[in-house]
Amino acid sequence: MSENKTILITGAANGIGRATLMHFAGLGWRVVGLDRDSEALAELRDALPGDAALFLSCDVGKEGEVNRAFERIDEWLGGGALHCVVNNSGIADPYSGPLETLELAQWQAWIDASLTAAFLVSRSALPHLRRAESASIVNISSTRAVMSEPDTFAYTAAKGGLDALTHSMAVSLGPAIRVNAIRPGWIETGPWQKSGNRSRPDHRPKDRDQHPAGRVGKPEDIAEAVEYLHDADFVTGQHLNIDGGMTVKMIYEH
Fold first, then answer.
1. Which CATH class is domain 6-248?
2. Which is it for the CA torsion 150, 169, 178, 230, positive or negative?
């Protein structure tokens, strides 16, 4: 039942976060979206008017901003519960360049956007999650947590840390709160960007052929996986690859 259920999603303004938020709104959930992109959040406010949605501009990698956001969320919930938190925020581009030129500030930006943000948001959300009869946290990791492309050090480390945080939180927060991770593979987010950045997919046959499932992923695939993990009350501490089978297929250069 979706009645009176509330989900909070970080990085909610575009891509996977936007699709997930709209998916749960379509199921009748109340939704809270956090993001730095105020323009995209304004589009979502127009799409979901009324008191069933709350959108806040927030850099979730910064403790002060998270604290201020949760003051507003607490007021909006009015003593009600959060049922699910999706830690989806992060820097989308994994490429950081050669290791010898990677500056500490750049490294820290990737870590904060994904790993630190998940810690800060989960910590602030705990009192609200504990009000729910059944609550869950879903961390959006990446297949790059377990496999790498060249020069993606910071992104890969952030996602690997998120995987480890997932099983650590599952052990410590259960049974009241289940914690799982989703590792997206190649997900085409073009149709789920704000209006000024929206694009239509144009994938080559060899792009599709990399995937045993026969296609590139869609943000809707991740949204459906979040729904599954929230409903699956015997699943916790797990890392679910949603990648069309790409990570199990050996690919050779020809």
1. alpha beta
2. negative
| Whether the Cβ atoms of residue 173 and residue 230 lie closer than 8 Å to each other | no
pLDDT tens digit string along 200-214? 887 787 777 788 888
Closest CA to 37 of 191, 152, 196: 196
Q: Do the bridges between strand 84-87 and strand 135-140 make them parallel or antiparallel, or are there none, so unpaired?
A: parallel
Structure tokens at 251: 């690919």
Catalytic residues: 155
Beta bridge partners of 54: 32
Taking the alpha carbons of 61, 66, 69, 73 in that order, is the dihedral positive or negative? positive
User: Domain locations in the chain?
Assistant: 6-248
Q: Which is nearest to 176 in space by CA: 219, 119, 217, 134?
A: 134
Edge-first strand order for the sheet with 239-242 is 53-57, 30-35, 6-10, 84-87, 135-140, 177-184, 239-242
Pairing of strands 6-10, 30-35: parallel
- The predicted-structure confidence for 6-51, as pLDDT tens digits, reads as follows 999 999 999 999 999 999 999 999 999 999 999 999 999 999 988 9
A 10 A CB-CB count for 202 gives 8
SS3 assignment for 17-32: HHHHHHHHHHCCCEEE
